[in-house]
């Protein structure tokens, strides 16, 4: 058990704010992130704020694909202190493809800030990311950005968010002035005016504000903490990341009501964040971050208690002990030993492949957290190796990268070349680039006849017979769980109808046997 006094523990945990920013590309996520870090006097900067120009090259050059395409492919964490709280901002990938990485990152946060472009309203990718948050009832704070430009009317924007996402909206601030005359905000919760210049009451902007506030307070829902915590209501902030308007409103609100670490559901019970015993969930693995070291970092979110450097932990998937000698607050190329970390914090744990995504670490309890799934891939490709001499190396590299979650790997039971499965095509580019850069293996992709993959479960004898009959369509995944590959949705449906004893799964919980 951790030796932290209970009061210290609960105070430390209560001041953690672990969140992500979600948005459609170009809505202003990078700008807002930079402003937030600046406001928070960031104690650490990570490599994956998609900084432009020189900053991008210097911070993220370990991943050439990221540099070439100007996108942030991997996510990392930024920690800073503001208003007495410790903020952990987890960066979500900014590219168009939905990836499992995004989903997993969102499993590790307690709230999300949804950035919307004031002229464009809700866009595709915002909606998609929002749906992921909703699946987990993650409380959402909305930041309507670019109010310094021509924008939609605030009432319309609030209405659009409410109706298109089926989410109650409550204005937390109100814009003072519009477009070029946007000078600040009025905080409806604290009743304070924050403007970049003094405005007399006779200023047309103040007159407009008074009129709109009257209407807003009469017609729109008030902030309701319970509904927010349950993910049913979003407080809405107006601002301009570029002009640094509304950014501290947002941070102050996160300090005052941003959720502290949530309870985490495990297979056997729900773990409360302020339980004294430490538990942690691995939600991301990243290998070869430093090409000179060939190390592998598991990003673990502390779910309860306090982690102290040197602790001996139980790795519940294997039942083995695991000593955490060098937990790190990990930021792109900068690492700093984490002497202690509390529930809500994210630490990097260097290891040699022992830790996998979805793994749970505890002080002694046999516990497995749920909620880190694998999704059935939507794209399947056979890997083509140009240099046959490198077959062994390829096998090892593919396994490592699949363990890291870059792609899913399926080994056909008939011994054919491995098949990789991805949810978005960008993952294939990442795989190809990393195999070349980190392992010196050049590969191509060939089409496969298959378009769908499903994990199968059922009575052992029935699975065996099924696998024999369908040998050319059977594969094993990384954990040696059987997977059926179908050539079409029609074929999949027919196979399901013909095999009522077998269940076909399109989601697999990692780290937990599917039963
Ligand atoms: P993203 O990470 O969501 O993709 O968006 P990013 O912050 O990169 O912002 C996209 C563009 O919108 C950038 O312009 C940025 O300067 C601009 N922007 C962000 N916030 C605001 C805001 O509050 N007001 C206004 N008017 N613009 C904003 P760019 O021309 O693409 O890049 P840059 O040349 O400015 O770096």
UniProtKB/TrEMBL annotation:
It is found in: Cytoplasm. The keyword Repressor does not apply. SUPFAM superfamilies: EF-G C-terminal domain-like (SSF54980), P-loop containing nucleoside triphosphate hydrolases (SSF52540), Translation proteins (SSF50447). GO terms for cellular component: cytosol. Keywords: Cytoplasm, GTP-binding, Nucleotide-binding, Protein biosynthesis. Pfam families: EF-G_D2 (PF22042), GTP_EFTU (PF00009), RF3_C (PF16658). GO terms for molecular function: GTP binding; GTPase activity; guanosine tetraphosphate binding; translation release factor activity, codon nonspecific; translation release factor activity, codon specific. GTP binds at residues 23-30, 91-95, 145-148. Belongs to the TRAFAC class translation factor GTPase superfamily. Classic translation factor GTPase family. PrfC subfamily. Increases the formation of ribosomal termination complexes and stimulates activities of RF-1 and RF-2. It binds guanine nucleotides and has strong preference for UGA stop codons. It may interact directly with the ribosome. The stimulation of RF-1 and RF-2 is significantly reduced by GTP and GDP, but not by GMP. HAMAP family: Rel_fac_3. This is Peptide chain release factor 3.
